[in-house]
């Protein structure tokens, strides 16, 4: 049973590495696409196709009631806190598409803070759910995560920066651990900020999908995410090896 659990756990860790490598490959592929789009013939074809997208942009910009859009975006963030399939990138893209980028960024940061607040206090009130059970079963994760029983701030920053860790589960977990709420929000926003900024800029430039303005944020997002995921794999793998050697001794 122990051997099977160990194999299953290692399989999940390996998946993190594969996801990281895939992110780096996608980043490289987008760099290549950006270089290819500098070819004049392709640029002419792209400009013809882009005219249709710019027409769509003009229609969206003509929408007068922007506060209704803000309310809808905040409602989506609230829905996300209870219905995980709603994705944060999609919500940020929507606000980026229809609002000035600086206002969209403010709305997205506010929405993320609201989402994380809901899940934090949900965990504080109802416990950490499956996440806390997983932490208590896994000595390595518990050692990395717990700091005087209230959660490790450095791990929280890492959890927020790496895309493969679910926002809802981590928020609920840190609420259950009674981590300081102010520190929790500051660290969470800092870790998530590069993703929020990237999502917002991508949404704002969705009408020019093969431009540098659209592709560069995606390249940075995949590159940073990939490096972080590969790094966390080697840290955990090294910790596992060390733990195995200690047990053998």
Please summarize the sheet with the most strands.
none
Kindly report the oligomeric state of this protein.
Answer: single chain
- Spans of at least 5 consecutive residues whose pLDDT stays below 50 are none
Q: H/E element string?
A: HHHHHHHHHHH
Helix/strand/pairing class, anyone? mainly alpha
Instruction: Specify the helix fraction band.
Output: over 70%
N→C terminal distance: 22 Å
Q: Judging from the principal axes of the Cα atoms, what is the shape? A: flat
The Cα radius of gyration reads 21 Å
Mean pLDDT: 82
Number of helices: 11
Query: How many structural domains?
Result: 1
Q: How many beta-strand runs?
A: 0
How much of the sequence is in beta strands?
under 5%
Secondary-structure map with pairings?
Layout: H1 2-36, H2 40-61, H3 66-82, H4 88-98, H5 101-126, H6 129-137, H7 139-145, H8 153-161, H9 167-176, H10 181-204, H11 212-248
Quick tags:
249 residues; mainly alpha
Structure commentary:
The chain has one domain (12-248). Helices cover 83% and strands 0% of the residues. The chain has eleven helices and no strands. It has helices at 2-36, 40-61, 66-82, 88-98, 101-126, 129-137, 139-145, 153-161, 167-176, 181-204, 212-248. The radius of gyration is 21 Å and the shape is flat.
Task: Write a concise synopsis of the structure shown.
This protein has 249 residues and is mostly helical.
């Amino acid at each position: 049973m122990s051997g099977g659990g160990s194999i299953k756990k290692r399989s999940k860790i390996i998946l993190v590495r594969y996801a990281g490598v895939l992110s780096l490959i996608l980043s490289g592929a987008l760099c290549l696409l950006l270089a290819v789009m500098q070819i004049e013939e392709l640029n002419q074809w792209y400009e013809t196709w882009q005219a249709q997208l710019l027409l769509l942009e003009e229609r969206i910009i003509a929408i007068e009631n922007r506060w209704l859009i803000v309310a809808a975006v905040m409602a989506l963030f609230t829905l996300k806190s209870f219905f995980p399939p709603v994705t944060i990138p999609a919500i940020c893209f929507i606000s980026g598409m229809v609002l000035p980028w600086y206002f969209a960024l403010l709305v997205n940061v506010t929405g993320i803070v609201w989402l994380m607040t809901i899940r934090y206090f949900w965990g504080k009130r109802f416990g950490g759910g499956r996440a806390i059970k997983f932490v208590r079963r896994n000595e390595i994760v518990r050692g990395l995560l717990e700091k005087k029983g209230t959660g490790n701030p450095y791990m929280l920053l890492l959890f927020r920066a790496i895309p493969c860790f679910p926002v809802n589960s981590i928020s609920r977990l840190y609420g259950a651990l009674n981590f300081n709420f102010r520190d929790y929000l500051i660290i969470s926003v800092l870790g998530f900020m590069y993703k929020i900024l990237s999502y917002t800029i991508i949404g704002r430039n969705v009408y020019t999908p093969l431009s540098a303005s659209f592709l560069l944020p995606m390249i940075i997002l995949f590159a940073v995410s990939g490096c972080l995921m590969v790094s966390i794999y080697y840290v955990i793998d090294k910790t596992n090896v060390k733990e195995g050697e200690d047990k053998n001794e």
